[in-house]
Design a protein that fits this description.
heterodimer; A: about 325 residues; alpha+beta; Heat Shock Protein 90; 3 domains; 5-stranded antiparallel beta sheet; 5-stranded mixed beta sheet; about 20% strand; B: Rossmann fold; Arc Repressor Mutant, subunit A; 11 helices
Chain lengths: ~325, ~220
């Protein structure tokens, strides 16, 4: 009697723990019969059944979305079932993490809501990029308002004494002209630095003009043939997205110029109903997508895409060029 | 002798002063004043008889482009010579649309600057060589305007490759294998092809390829 009471107590304790954890739990046997499920699992998966109803059902009737989880559950019903981890799956406005583990006669799936973590990651990434942009803007302004006009004035001052020097002697004149050329070089360098920091064409004329101008510059100053095409881009986009896509384009190009030894670059920007697609191709030496992961350039691109809530995919094969496909939600 | 009367508009004092000093050395030129913003410029225009305004196109708060359009409607007799750090064709075109009579870059030398002023003052237009080559380039190779067509039927080399293989009845995975790209990338290209050619399905793609002779070589 005493023994049975204790058993009941333990059961009750376990049930209340199960129902009060912040994790969703669902477990099933190798035929898909549900062995155990808690309320939190129903909430996470947006299920309308009661727990008792669920116990009558097969796991395949219950888990139909998200797609990734469904696939794992299906393969988990075979003899060759395997542990799995799915991180940060976006499902009905939540980011969920699923952990599937083998138990003696089936699987147990635990799930956690990591939306707040994802949100704060997203926020800190965005503020990091925003800070970077502000700093670039500040530098660009400083060059434009400070060094730029000083250089122009310096050049004017030199021009003012040009005539006097001519009268003096020829040797001096040569040195003078050499100095003048050096100033021009400095001014050119400064202009291109300032342009990379903050492309004025972008804010003044928009993304398409800015990317066209960038592509023309690549075309004329490098041994690479670059084409830029766009479809459905008649209207200007939100400023943050324009800047983001421009930076991604810049980074992709500089990546290719630095590493790929390519002869040809094609960049396309396409607007469809709810998405912007950037497709970037080069015919360079390519790489094994498995090993490329963590170069600074690639990481910058991934961060930019992530900050815009998009996805990036690098496809390449040694010796066969590369294709980057970037999808960014936009409405 | 008739002087060419000039106003310099630029948001940097040091630059205005340097330029005024340079120009005043020339016998035929007289700098009437310099302005750092719109209000100062309009004030000077009222006070003086002016032949040429040398106009910076980026004056901080004030856009030299808008200002030029303004002046050209109120005082069409005054010539505007644009002076800019930007060699980008968008700025050149905008400035010309606003009515500027000439466009030179800030790194122009003394001789070019004087040449530009004389040309503009005599009623002609002047572009520095870098500027005119930009404009010409665009006339000869109108890349951007060609691509701008809304029907957007220009395909990339890779898209044409994929299209050819589709018409030869290769599946996505076979195309992926042949071109050393992933199935996902093939799918992206296929979707773009449908989109750009404005067709609904593979049959439409094949029809397009046939009509445009893509299968022949």
């Amino acid at each position: 009697m005493n023994d049975k009471n204790q058993h009941n107590n333990t059961d009750n304790l376990l049930i209340s723990i199960l129902d009060n954890t912040p994790f969703g739990i669902i477990s099933y046997d190798h035929l898909g019969h549900i062995l155990l499920v808690n309320k939190q699992a129903l909430v996470f998966l947006d299920l309308e059944f009661s727990i008792d109803e669920l116990k009558e059902k097969n796991i395949l009737e219950v888990i139909t979305v998200p797609e990734e989880l469904k696939k794992r559950v299906e393969s988990g019903l075979s003899r060759k079932r395997k542990d799995f981890d799915l991180e940060g799956i976006l499902f009905s406005n939540k980011y969920l993490t699923f952990r599937g583990r083998k138990i003696s006669d089936g699987m147990i799936i635990t799930m956690a809501d990591i939306t707040t973590i994802k949100r704060s990651e997203f926020l800190s990434l965005n503020s990091l990029l925003e800070g970077q942009e502000m700093e670039r803007k500040r530098l660009a302004r400083e060059i434009h308002d400070g060094i730029g006009p000083l250089l122009s004035a310096l050049k004017l001052n030199l021009a003012n004494i040009e005539g006097d020097i001519e009268k003096e002697n020829n040797d001096l004149k040569k040195k003078f002209l050499k100095s003048n050329m050096l100033i021009d070089e400095v001014a050119d360098d400064l202009r291109s630095i300032s342009h990379n920091l903050l492309p004025k064409v972008l804010s003044d004329f928009g993304l398409i003009e800015a990317l066209e101008s960038l592509s023309e510059k690549i075309q004329t100053s490098n041994s690479v043939d670059m084409t830029f095409m766009h479809t459905g881009m008649e209207k200007r986009l939100d400023g943050v997205i324009e800047l983001g896509i421009y930076r991604i384009g810049q980074e992709l190009i500089s990546n290719t110029l630095k590493h790929a030894n390519a002869r040809k670059i094609t960049m396309q920007l396409i607007r469809r109903k709810d998405f912007l697609h950037l497709i970037f191709e080069d015919d360079g030496k390519g790489f094994d997508p498995e090993t490329i992961n963590k170069g600074i350039g690639i990481m910058n691109i991934q961060n930019r895409v992530k900050a815009l809530g998009g996805e990036v995919n690098f496809d390449s094969h040694p010796g066969k060029g590369m294709t980057a496909t970037i999808d960014i939600p936009y409405n | 002798m008739q002087h060419i009367k000039i106003i310099i508009a630029d948001d940097h004092k040091i630059f205005r002063e340097g330029l005024a000093e340079l120009l005043n050395k020339e016998k035929e030129i007289l700098v009437k004043g310099d302005a750092g913003n719109k209000i100062e410029l309009m004030e000077l225009l009222k006070m003086h008889e002016v032949d040429v305004i040398i106009m910076d196109i980026d004056m901080g708060e004030t856009s030299g482009i808008d200002l030029t359009a303004n002046i050209k409607t109120e005082r069409p007799d005054v010539k505007v010579l644009a002076l800019s750090m930007h060699g980008d064709k968008n700025y050149i075109v905008k400035m010309l649309e606003a009515g500027a009579n000439g466009y030179i870059l800030k790194n122009a030398g003394k001789e070019e600057m004087l040449n530009a002023i004389r040309t503009v003052a005599s009623g002609n237009t002047y572009f520095s060589s870098q500027v005119s080559s930009k404009l010409l380039e665009d006339l000869i190779h109108p890349r951007s305007t060609k691509i701008r067509k809304p029907e957007g039927t220009s395909l990339t080399d890779r898209e044409i490759e994929v299209l050819k293989l589709i018409t030869e009845e290769y599946s996505n995975s076979e195309i992926a294998e042949r071109l050393f790209i992933s199935i996902r990338t093939v799918d992206t290209h296929r979707r773009n092809l449908l989109d750009k050619l404005g067709v609904k399905n593979t049959a439409g793609l094949v029809k397009y390829a046939l009509q445009h002779g893509l299968l022949e070589n």
